[in-house]
Amino acid sequence: MKKLNKFFLMLFASSLFLASCSSDDSSPNVSLGQYDNGMFVVNEGNSTVTTSSITFISNSGAVEQDVFRNVNPGAAGLGTYLQPMFFDNTRAFIISGSANKITVVNRYTFEFIATISTNLENPRYGAVANGKAYVTNAGDWMTGADDFLTVINLSDYSTSKATIGVWSEKIIEENNKLYIANGYAYGDATSITVFNPVTNNVETTIQLGFNPNSFEEENGILYVLGSEKLAKINLATNAVVGTPITISAGAKNLNIEDNKIYYTVDTAVYAMAINATVAPSTPLLTYQSQSQDGRMYGFAVNDGKIYIADGGDFASDSKAYIYSTTGSLLRTITVGVGPNGFYFN
């Protein structure tokens, strides 16, 4: 009997030990690298290679300029006229439009991994799907007929091409399909291309009746913004839902955050409920800019804050502004030359 009691006592003690271990499963967050908590600002630069750079702003507010060069002093430069970067789980892909190359780095440490320079001609935007990266290319700029996708095998960075044959700009992945905005500022196409990365072919083209410049998916609906229109596409049917909403001329930079649609017109930011049927007439905020071509050059809404990048004179360091979603200026940050976007890590 004593042996039996001793056995149960040992069993009870063991259960306490196991319970104490399992209750502490939420161990402290382990850092993935120096840049795993914050955002990157892509500074496209100009025709001088040394003017392109990446700025990092940590969640604590610290600012580091020219991150790539700091981490990789011996690596080749990023190239000029940087386009938006994109991510997979562990890597960041930095596109240089004029150098026709993509620099691959670890997204958390920013250590150089590879350079991709084949099957690229004026690369624009990228996304990841089906274990590969897909980058839109503007071709010779004069016609959309030669626009194509660069398909990148992420295991060895080999490339191939897929024909699109219409002006191809911004690209996003949703439910393992790729959606490509046709037109924007460089052509007169008025549609969205749906590309299937499994078959490596265009699946369908959705006609809009206006020139798209930005889009975002939310709950199975693709919201597409043009200069004077906002349309909704049901991704289950690839059909435009209802009649597009009339928006002020010059509208761009569509973002969706917390069931609100944000967009910009000149130096103003507008916000509207995601289910609104009429566009707002009064802006949420405006900011002052002396830039001829760089007003609202970069824009994002994330985690309760609005981020604006001003292109400045495209020759010297410029500014990024952080606002609350009620329109209050929280911070002004000096970044690099021609900041064109924010990317959250």
Count of runs of 4 or more consecutive helical residues: 2
The amount of helix comes to under 10%
Q: Which spans of ≥5 residues are poorly predicted at pLDDT below 50?
A: 1-27
Helix-strand makeup class: mainly beta
Number of strands: 29
Quickly count the domains: 3
Q: Over the alpha carbons, how many angstroms does the gyration radius reach?
A: 23 Å
The outline comes out as: globular
* Mean pLDDT value: 90
Structure notes:
This protein has helices at residues 2-22, 67-71, and strands at residues 38-43, 53-58, 63-64, 86-87, 91-96, 101-106, 112-116, 123-129, 132-137, 148-153, 159-163, 171-174, 177-182, 191-196, 201-207, 212-218, 221-226, 229-234, 239-240, 245-246, 251-257, 260-265, 268-273, 285-286, 298-302, 305-310, 319-324, 329-334, 339-344. The protein is mostly beta strands and 345 residues long. It folds into three domains: 33-86 and 287-345, no CATH class; 118-207, Thrombin, subunit H; 211-283, Beta Barrel (Thrombin, subunit H), CATH 2.40.10.480. The strands form seven sheets. Strands 16, 17, 18, 19 and 20 form a five-stranded antiparallel β-sheet that branches. A hairpin with a 2-residue loop joins strand 8 (123-129) and strand 9 (132-137). The model is unreliable at 1-27 (pLDDT under 50).
